[in-house]
Amino acid sequence: MKHSVITTQSSMPSPRRLLSLALLVFALSPLAANAQSGRDYVYIVGSSTVYPFATIVAERFGRGSAYRTPKVESTGSGGGFKLFCDGIGVDYPDISNSSRAIKSTELEACRSNGVVDIIELKIGYDGIVFASALSAPDVMLTTADIYHALAKELPGSEPGSLVANPNRRWADIRDGLPAHRIEVLGPPPTSGTRDEFVEIAMGEGCRQVPWIAALETSEPSRFRAICHTIREDGAFIETGENDNLIVQKLEANPRAFGIFGFSFLDQNTDKVKGAGIDGVKPGFEAIADGRYPVSRPLYFYVKKDHVATIPGLRAFLAELTSERTLGEDGYLVDRGLIPMPVAERRLEADNARTLTSLSLARE
Amino acid sequence: MSKIERRRRIEARLGGRHRRERWFRLLGITAVGLALSFLVLILANLVGEGASAFTQSKLDLPIRYEVTASPTGGAPDVRYPDVDYDALVLDALAGLLAVEPDRQMRRELRQLVSIDAGFVVRDSLGSAEQAPGARLTVTVPASSNVDMLVKGQLDRSLPAVQRPLSDRQIAWVDTLRDSGVLVRRFNTALFTNGDSREPELAGIRGAVVGSFYMLAVTLLLAFPIGVATAVYLEEFAPRNRWADVVEISINNLAAVPSIVFGLLGLAVFIDWLGFPRSAPLVGGFVLALLTLPVVIISSRAAIRGVPGSIREAALGVGASRMQVVMDHVLPLALPGVLTGTIIGMSRALGETAPLLMIGMVAFIVDVPTGLGDPATALPVQIYLWSDSPERAFAERTSAAILVLLGFLLLMNLLAVLIRRRVENK
Asked: If DSSP codes are grouped into helix, strand and coil, which group holds residue B315?
């Protein structure tokens, strides 16, 4: 027996010690969970398009102020609102950013969970570009061309009839376009960028067919089905949410086009270029003054009830809406954000200061 | 059949049999060679892309500063916040390049250095005991565009509008490089900083610490529970239909896609038990669920491998079943148990999908200091960098992958070493 006692001590301490440590972890875990109740940093969720901008503001704010750096989660616009609207309190995000305005269904979901006072802050615009490799020839497209190249079904010979999109090559759409096959790389349906592209670029091209334009008021759901459905026969290639991947693939294949946000074009001007749409090339000024047709506003939605409880939230809103962030020489503009006109910027800064919530602002 | 006849037949077939064996060997060697060449290809690609990220262009700037009396009337304070440290950096740059900058030129000069330069200068002036008017050489990181130019990843033959740097800026960079002010040094920031949106400041420390916390929780949960389960199932559990059901369930769990464990973690730990999102604690729980089947299966195999004669001998001299397991079976099975655990842990280290569900795919700058702090993990950091628009993140992505591979190699090496060590005892 003596022998066995010795071996017990010499060979088995590690599993036993590990077991007791594991118990300790279990015992301590409620402490870690409680740490959340005094959350001392701002918690942001939302769009992957706004993520590059939100993270830069968060980092500057963390370095320049006495507060901790906010946490930014990239969940997509819809996923962000879902988390955001789940409730009030430290467990839920303070801010949800979005590449589109909040939907009425999302506002309803928020209200039913007690999230009533929401502050809407517009930070600027982002253009969506239709880009190709630098080595490809320059192309000028119209929104009608884009609709005819990417829609699943096109209007047939008589009003009311639809045929499967017959266009294989760009030149099939109209003379003057390149003779090669239609190949467009773009984001998946979960992406806000795709929503906006489909709505603005394809929707605009679609409206030029009179009987479809008439549907927009009489049968809006049919209008959306016709205008916003992208073809699935291989001409449009879904490439995930990774825009760098699209840039790489465009470099390798000068015949393809890619759809992504202007900030990626801005960072990769030595590799890709944007096609002109309706006669306007995507550029800083052209997007800012609205001449370039495919652009959308970017928003931050803030819970008013959190401003008093989360340290640094008010200061973060001041940083977010300050001139050095959003102004014409602001640091977000260096990263490809399109600034708003000065009057609009002042209005947003006022909203951030006075915490004017959405319902009041809209009434 | 005569003896000679039979012999001839055998010899006739022999050539064919040998040929078939040679073919089989050749196929085997080709398979191994193919696998190895893919590995070499991947590694060469990563090293080719990522090696340059281990250096970073830095500028040695002679900073001249006048200490002004603080307006409060106290002692002169170089840390007084009204000092425009960015202006000190710009003055130093303008002095080195012998230019009188106007507003536009100041803007272009500022784009040469990292936005962090002013903070670096503030910190070194604050810590140095300097006479007023003296010069102090401060090393600040260059901006990522300058870094890309120095590393040859920016094509300077392109027209100016397609480049992030103007002709004037490129000429300045060349001057600074020729005069020895701009040099490539080891990129310490990559290992000492947390995440950043400025490539020249971004580091993997936050992610490494996050991964470490998570793996610690995983190990503390998966190892004792896994080994205890394996011991019970092998040594104590009755052999019946229930044991079969449990065995099949465990084998099935080992094959379940990891994202499912993430969803489970979200539902149970965060929504139901109220643990914080993005915390390494929850990440560790989820990864422990993921590694448990691996630990159990490999531990059971190791325990089954202990010869029955050892159990019988111990029982024969009067040891209880508990003593048999603790004193004889487990020590002998330990090498196999540890190998399985470490392989399970290295699988956990490389996981991203379940962490997505529990909010660990996030931009987190501060290095986590506890199990409840928001954190990311190394593979998540790689994923986030690969999706960043700034060019300089491409090489940093490859560098981070190399570091992750290094950790995996270390862990697997550790598994081999422990096995050797324990087996020799």
From this structure: helix
Contact B363 A242 (CB under 8 A): no
**Interchain contact, A55 vs B197, CB within 8 Å:** yes
Rounded to the nearest angstrom, the minimum Cα separation between A154 and chain B is 35
Which secondary structure element, helix H or strand E, spans residue B137, and what is its range? strand B135-141
| Domain ranges across chain A | 38-125+297-362, 127-295
Please tell me whether the interface predicted TM-score (ipTM) of this complex is above 0.90: no
Question: Could you tell me if A328 lies within 8 Å of chain B, comparing CB atoms?
Answer: no
Of B361, B362, B389, the CB nearest to A264: B389
Say which CATH superfamily domain B205-424 falls into.
MetI-like (1.10.3720.10)
Half-sphere exposure of B19 (CA within 13 A, CB side): 6
pLDDT tens digits, residue range B203-213? Answer: 999 999 999 99
Q: Which residues of A touch B387 (CB under 8 A)?
A: 48, 241-244
C-alpha of A329 from chain center? 23
Please report, for chain B, the start and end positions of each structural domain, with discontinuous segments joined by +. Answer: 57-187, 205-424
CATH homologous superfamily of A127-295 equals: Periplasmic binding protein-like II (3.40.190.10)
Chain A partners of B391 at a C-beta cutoff of 8 Å?
Answer: 267-268
pLDDT in tens, B129-176: 555 566 788 899 999 989 999 998 888 888 777 788 888 899 999 999
CB-CB contact of A358 with A118 (8 Å) = yes
The CB density around residue B366, as the number of other CB atoms within 10 Å, is 17
Q: Both tokens of residue B130? A: 């300097």
Which residues touch B180 (CB under 8 Å, ≥6 apart)?
Answer: B60
Closest Cβ–Cβ partner in B281, B334, B363 for A72 = B363
Residue A90's closest chain B neighbor by CA? B276
The phi and psi torsions of A294 (rounded to 5 degrees) equal: -100, 85
A38-125+297-362 and A127-295 agree in CATH topology: yes
Closest residue on chain B to A70 (Cα): B364
A330 touches chain B (CB under 8 A): no
Confirm or reject contact between A22 and chain B (CB < 8 A): yes
Q: Are B233 and B243 in contact (CB under 8 A)?
A: yes
Average pLDDT, chain B: 87
CATH placement of domain A38-125+297-362: 3.40.190.10
